[in-house]
Amino acid sequence: VKQQGGNHYSFYTPASDNELSERIDLEVALRYALERDEFQLYYQPQVSLKTGNIVGAEALIRWKHPQKGMISPMKFIPIAEENGLIEPIGEWVLHQACQDSKGWRSQGLGSLRVAVNLSGRQFRTPNLRQKLVQILLSTGCEPDYLELELTESLLIRDAELSIQQLQALKALGLKIAIDDFGTGYSSLNYLQKFPFDVLKIDQCFVRNLHTNKINVAITKSLISMAHLLNLKVIAEGVETQEELQILDEFNCDEIQGYLFSRPLSLEDFKAFVKSGTQL
Ligand code: C2E
Ligand code: CA
Ligand code: CA
Ligand code: CA
User: Is residue 258 in contact with ligand 1, taking CB distance under 6 Å?
Assistant: First the structure.
């Protein structure tokens, strides 16, 4: 039985039985995915609106399941969060991203930084800082080229502890970005209290900026507020020239989205950077 809140119960339908067994299959496969080398990082370019140049990339994990093909991180990250696999997976992501980004600089692709998504459970791992030190040392990645993306909901649960952890991480010299901003609690108070370097405006506000007056107002005030607090602003999910134009008008610092590039495999990303493509 599934609890629906209150005293209402309903019995599983065959559909939810399927969902359950699919989830169990995924969970089992996920346990072997690391050792079977089924994960890959894709990189989505982040471009400066001032110069039109690529300044960095967000690392996005991909899982190529041997039978099912590509599985979205939206599907398997929550499972990995629940069963604890996110810790080894997250460590793999950090290591790979730092290694790749060091490679970009040593191969003369430019001083490109890398942004890595951190899950809640990973953020709360007591030895995260130690792990990061090890990874930075072993890959030779300079800490100021690493940005960690965290979401609001993850930080607010225990604000004081989160602030301490953020400060400990920042002391290593890396940068902190607040991801999906505007979708959670979004208290302005929090924005001031937490030691962020970068604010990422969620794609739901970027969508249809040219026709949606409310999104225009929200985006405009988010950008000016972030700038008052000395944060750099990245707009994500930019898909059209119209959205880009408005973001530029509001002095957004950087953009990321299909308009400029989809997430790319490491090889494709390097080729894209070498091609000198500009915004
Ligand atoms: P996110 O961090 O908000 O990442 C942005 C998502 O938007 C990515 O989906 C990206 O491919 C997609 N995207 C980028 N540009 C556009 C656009 O112009 N239009 C649209 N419609 N979408 C765009 P993706 O790669 O499927 O990742 C989904 C989520 O999975 C991420 O959302 C993040 O929360 C999580 N995730 C991905 N990689 C990792 C990882 O290595 N670790 C953790 N903990 N989470 C990850
Ligand atoms: Ca992100
Ligand atoms: Ca995001
Ligand atoms: Ca501008």
Answer: yes
